[in-house]
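Re: weekly structure request thread

Next one in the queue (205 aa):
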Amino acid sequence: MWIKKIKKMKNNIIENLTKIIAKLPSMGPRISKKIILHLALNKEKILIPLINLLNELNDKIKNCQICGNIDEGDVCFICKDDLRQQDLLCVVEEVEDLWAIEKSKTFKGKYHVLGGNLSAINGKTIEDLNINSLILRVKNQKFSEIIIATSATIDGQNTAHYLVDLLQEFNVKISHLGYGIPIGSELDYLDEGTISIALKNRSFY
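Done, posted below.
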């Protein structure tokens, strides 16, 4: 009887959790099961605090209504910061790209998160990205420069060229990240020094 209970628990809990955790970046079934085992054996020290923090994450973390970043409110701390350069906008693909640039401590302007890039393989189209909100921001706010900081992949560069075409009608300088970003790379995998060099050596379209 107890063997059946263990088997049932495994099928209903461990296997289901394994499938969910395996969907996270850099995870797989093998690592997922190790994580679940470690949590199960350390309930008081790790599992319960993790559950509480995940509940807080679910309840409090929201996408910023202005730029698309995530924070504990409708408007993120970067958009609220009046000391940042208001007329300089950096367009990135994902929130982790924003965090990578912030970590470099080089950029002091504002951001706009697209939510991905145009990709036929991944089924990402114009409608799936935060492009309309970007155009609306540019229309309603005076920017002196917009930095297109999409990844150096083919999809990232295709997205950049599409954005440049859209933004050409506005009286604003449009630049892209310069020397320092290897072809085919993504921002969140790069070190702060490389990102800093790319920002300082950005080129204009």
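The first strand starts at residue 62 and ends at 63. The beta strands are 62-63, 70-71, 88-92, 110-113, 145-148, 173-176, 203-204.
Next request, please.
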